[in-house]
Write a structure and sequence with these properties.
The chain folds into three domains: 1-206, no CATH class; 252-426, Beta-Lactamase, CATH 3.30.450; 434-671, Rossmann fold (3-Layer(aba) Sandwich). 43% of the residues lie in helices and 19% in strands. The protein is built from 26 helices and 27 strands. A nine-stranded mixed sheet has the order 9-10-11-14-13-12-18-17-16. α4 (107-124) runs antiparallel to α5, α9 (257-270) packs across α11 and α16 (445-456) crosses α24. The protein is elongated, with a radius of gyration of 35 Å. The chain starts with a strand and ends in a 9-residue tail after the last helix. The relative contact order is 0.06.
């Protein structure tokens, strides 16, 4: 019988990252696959370790027992010790005592004892071998006390050999650790108890490559715990590390042997299935179909092997098999945790655990060791799904996984000299809303009201910030402020904005997907950003959103804005850290003329803030700046960048620059085009601000986080607009305080009934 290409009892060494895995095929072995429980298993491993080098031991049967580097080293040292004893022949004549008839009477027994300690017993039970050695030293010490110098003269070489063996044993980590246990115990236990304390394997299904590590958990501080896809997630703080730890414990790592057997047999049966002409993306969408297929197979396998399974067990096992056949394996759990924003697998794969970025706890090291085999399978799947090449001539593959709302970038040699590496960016399935940002202290209610007003007044806005500053999330919240009677065209090279969700809650959105900015494929068929933009401008009167301004499309966009071809609100993001850096990037790097850049009305800057040098990054809007129109060369030097709101880190507050408002050209323009007085403009802004702050207050008062999701804030925003519109039609003007009062009454007495009994 063979397991993974190995016959039963065989072994093989495989390289994973920079570690050597010694894998034994243990299925149907006459002895158990456990170092702690079976002395024959120890013998087999130690004798093999005497011939090969290994960092990690894997005993593979229905499931795998994985022994880490520290545990493998314990046995490797014993194998080296056994080899050295063999080479030195510590049981040879010269080691048994002084020559002569009076001494040779002891040689036979001494020879047998040394062979037992240094050879026969050592490979099976090194701890017992050491204890036997200690016992023999005590026996010899007793004989010396009784027989005196004559016995010492005859036995000195033998005694020296015993002392040498004792020192050699105690120089190994296994015996050093054993001594620590023996000191703490009042009596010598069965050696099996000692092996159980030293050799605790990580158990995982044999068809799953990733290994989970759960060491040192007792010394860690638990920060949070929750469940994702029936898997427990725990966040820990480490006493001596600046980054937190993210541990997962999926159900597939804690099944019974019978469940492992059924699941493994099921996977063997379904492994030969090929979806034929059906694309892998279609397979992914048919997940439930495959789970039902696997449930049927699991029932048959369990029945045939007389294994009793509950219905809930069958459903869970089918879900696990689907995860590792048509799904994304262990990564699927991470990519389903929407509190994560990024998942990183660095090269060389297998040399260090995966890293994740948690929205609350920052960058965390996981307890997952990914394998090269899994990486190869993932690469093949993504290459097939995308239809794009990935090889030395095309060392980058950038692709969106719409079924799990994730963007993935893979790099390989020669770009990544240490091997393949992955970066996953998880998109928020539901868009951030301005009330959610207020609740998270990302911005103030007044800033939210100001942004909402600018969107409604069709200002041209650019949102800037570093990666991870929240600029794309802020962009998505701005989209929700666009009136729902306005058509929206969104252009992205990576699908980060939650367009499908926006459509579900009533927005009229058309999305354009353009060529990836990091693709190096020579067979690329996607449309270039600048060509897509020219097409978008011909698709009728629409609000236009550009996911990120990166390259030559900037010239096309600004030319369209300058001549009025965009026709409506234009919003986009661009990398930078201030309003001035946006001008520098757009004009000096992307080649947009100053005269065209003046089409920008507002620049919003987001930035991660580390208060008092703390390790924690807090995302904040730090600047809302108007771009004035009367300047020629440098907008900052000529006073054309007018700060409307600026962030003060000492107060953790985004403050209104009231003195600067007198110089605003944008408010004057809005007043002329809308007929609103400055008093009415600010009444409108404050009404929007207070309405969003009120939703946050209600959410916290009644503990309803869902209240601030887009599906609900959109309904509330629409109600506010309709109340305002009703007054305009009836009175020709708006009493903003009256509108806000009626809206608050509606929220508390009508809308809130959707969530709680009032």
């Amino acid at each position: 019988m063979e397991i993974g290409g190995l016959k039963v009892g065989d072994h093989v060494v495989k390289e994973e990252g920079d570690r050597r895995h010694l894998i034994f095929a243990c299925k149907d072995c006459p002895y158990g696959a456990s170092i702690a429980d079976d002395l024959h298993c120890r013998f087999h491993i130690i004798t093999v370790l005497a011939e090969v080098e290994a960092d990690i031991l894997v005993l593979s049967e229905v499931y795998e027992r994985v022994y880490g580097e520290a545990q493998t080293k314990l046995l490797s040292e014993i194998a080296t010790l056994m080899q050295s004893f063999n080479v030195e022949s510590v049981w040879s004549y010269k080691h048994l005592g002084k020559s002569g008839k009076e001494c040779e009477q002891y040689f036979s027994q001494r020879h047998d004892t040394l062979v037992k300690i240094a050879h026969d017993e050592l490979a099976y039970d090194p701890i017992l071998s050491y204890l036997t050695l200690l016992k023999e030293l005590k026996v010899e010490d007793s004989k010396l006390k009784v027989q005196g110098k004559e016995y010492l003269k005859c036995s000195k070489p033998y005694l020296e050999t015993l002392v040498y063996l004792k020192e050699a044993f105690e120089n190994t980590a296994l015996i050093a650790k054993t001594k620590d246990f023996l000191i703490k115990l009042r009596q010598i236990p069965d050696t099996a108890e000692l092996y159980h304390s030293l050799f605790e394997a990580d158990v995982k299904p044999s068809f799953i490559g990733s290994r989970l590590m759960f060491k040192e958990m007792e010394s860690l501080e638990l920060l949070d715990e929750y469940t994702v896809k029936r898997s427990t997630v725990q966040i820990f703080a480490h006493p001596s590390r600046t980054e937190n730890l993210y541990f997962i414990n999926p159900p597939e790592y804690t099944l019974s042997p019978e469940q492992y057997f059924v699941m493994s047999k099921t996977r063997e049966i379904v492994a030969g299935y090929r979806p034929g002409k059906t694309s892998l993306s279609t397979v992914a969408k048919s997940r439930r179909y495959f789970e039902r297929l696997y449930e049927s197979t699991i029932k048959d396998v369990a029945k045939e092997n007389k294994i009793t399974l509950e219905t809930s067990d069958i459903i869970e096992l089918a879900s696990i098999v689907a995860r590792y056949t048509v799904g994304y394996g262990i990564l699927e759990i991470l990519l389903s945790d929407r509190t994560l924003t990024d998942v990183y697998i660095d090269s060389p794969i297998g040399s260090k655990p995966l890293y994740v970025v948690h929205s609350e706890f920052g960058q965390c090291q996981t307890n997952i060791l990914y394998t090269q085999g899994e990486a190869n399978a993932m690469t093949s799947k993504l290459r097939a799904m995308s239809g794009r090449p990935f090889d030395e001539a095309h060392p980058v593959l950038d692709y969106d996984l719409p079924d799990i709302e994730t963007r993935i970038a893979i790099i390989g040699p020669p770009l990544s000299p240490d091997g393949t590496a992955f970066a996953f960016r998880l998109h928020k399935i539901t868009p951030w809303t301005l009330p959610q940002f207020i609740d998270a202290d990302f911005l103030t209610p007044l800033a939210a009201g100001l942004i909402s007003f600018f969107v409604d007044m069709q200002a041209t806005m650019l949102i800037t910030g570093s990666r991870g500053s929240g600029k794309t999330s802020l962009l998505s919240s701005c989209l929700l402020e666009i009136p729902q009677n306005t058509r929206i065209i969104i252009q992205e090279d990576t699908l980060e904005l939650p367009v499908p969700y926006m459509k579900k809650v009533g927005f009229n959105v058309q999305r354009l997907k353009t060529r990836s900015p990091i693709s190096v494929s020579k067979t690329e068929t996607e449309v270039a950003p600048e060509e897509a933009l020219r097409t978008a401008l011909r698709l009728g009167d629409s609000a236009f959103v550009l996911g990120e301004i990166r390259s030559t499309e900037a010239k096309v966009l600004y030319e369209a804005m300058r001549i009025g071809a965009a026709g409506n609100i234009v919003i986009g993001t661009v990398h930078g850290d201030s309003a001035y850096s946006v001008w520098d990037r757009v004009v000096n790097d992307l080649g947009v003329p100053n005269t065209s850049f003046k089409a920008t009305d507002i620049v919003i800057v987001a930035r991660p803030i580390r208060f008092a040098g703390s390790l924690k990054r807090n995302r904040r809007v730090v600047q809302i700046t108007e771009v004035k129109k009367h300047w020629s060369e440098d907008p900052e030097r000529e006073g054309a960048l007018l700060d409307l709101m600026l962030y003060d880190a000492r107060k953790d507050n985004l403050e209104l620059m009231e003195d600067n408002l007198k110089e605003s050209e944008l408010f004057e323009k809005i007043s002329k085009t809308s007929g609103l007085t400055m008093k009415q403009i600010w009444a409108d802004i404050r009404m929007r601000a207070e309405s969003k702050a009120f939703l946050v207050k209600i959410k916290n008062q009644y503990k309803i986080p869902k209240l601030l999701e887009a599906e609900n804030t959109t309904v509330c925003k629409n109600k506010l607009i309709l109340l305002k519109e009703k007054q305009l039609k009836g009175n020709g003007k708006v009493d903003y305080d009256d509108v806000l009062g009626k809206w608050k009454y509606w929220v508390k007495n009508t809308f809130l009934k959707r969530f709680v009994e009032i």
